[in-house]
Amino acid sequence: MDAAALTAARSALTGAAPLVHCLTNTVVQTLTANVLLAVGAAPAMVDEPLEAEGFAAVASAVLVNVGTVNQRTAEAMRRAARSASAAGTPWVLDPVAVGGLAFRTDLAGELLGSRPAVVRGNASEVMALAGAGAGGRGVDSTASADEALDAAVALAARTGGVVAVSGEVDVVTDGSRTVRVGGGSVLLTRTTGAGCALGALVAAYVAVADDPLTGAVAAHAHVALAAEAAAAVASGPGTFAPLWLDALDAVTDLSAAEVTA
């Protein structure tokens, strides 16, 4: 993938300040909002079913994250996904812990019918959503990103969108093109909500990029570069998180990211 296209997406995000409607889990809402603000996007956490449908239609992009889903928020997610799809608003599905728990697994499968622009999860979640596995250990994957590639390709063909699989090296595919993003830091895995915040960042980038694959890759590259910068000066996970937010704000050029096709 052309590094210039990734940096152009970063510039477009800064210029557009996309409004990202986040229906996300209660554990990560503050971090997710701060990550979006750090990169120049605008967060909105609207999960009331009577509001979610209308808001999704006017937002720049929508994130649906099933991390702490309940019956009320599930209805908001259904309405928001249908509304976004009908309005042509790109939306991202983050199938947190899908596979091991029936309610969220059934919901995520249902939401696929609204054709997300991007599905972003770890390898076990993507494999379970594609019907190729039983899920991981809660929110932790028990498979590598490359092990989930076939499932990701099949899922992309099913949705007509992009599937991004997080791992030591992230794998992003639209079913015909596959891109890998390396780098980052292990401290991301020790920061609550880093992966969920990545889903919101994918939504922000997809709202402004030329195509969903470029947007998804740009988001992963941005997170990796910022993590490397933060980890270089952090003492541990406690100092890493705020330093990562500062680094997300500082990254303007994505050309140095470890991106390979």
Structure commentary:
- The protein has helices at residues 3-16, 29-39, 49-58, 71-87, 102-111, 123-129, 149-159, 194-208, 212-231, 237-250; strands at 19-23, 42-44, 61-65, 91-94, 118-122, 162-166, 170-173, 178-181, 259-260.
- The N and C termini lie close together (6 Å).
- The chain is an alpha/beta fold.
- The chain has a 9-stranded mixed β-sheet, sandwiched between helices.
- The longest helix has 20 residues, at 212-231.
- 57% of the residues are buried.
What's this model, at a glance?
By secondary structure, the chain is α/β, with parallel strands linked by helices. 49% of the residues lie in helices and 14% in strands.
Q: Please tally the helical runs, counting DSSP H or I stretches of 4 or more residues.
A: 10
| Residue share in β-strands | 5-15%
Q: Write down how many β-strands occur, each being a DSSP E stretch of 2 or more residues.
A: 9
Helix fraction, binned, reads 40-55%
Task: Give the key terms.
261 residues; alpha/beta; 9-stranded mixed beta sheet; 49% helix; 14% strand
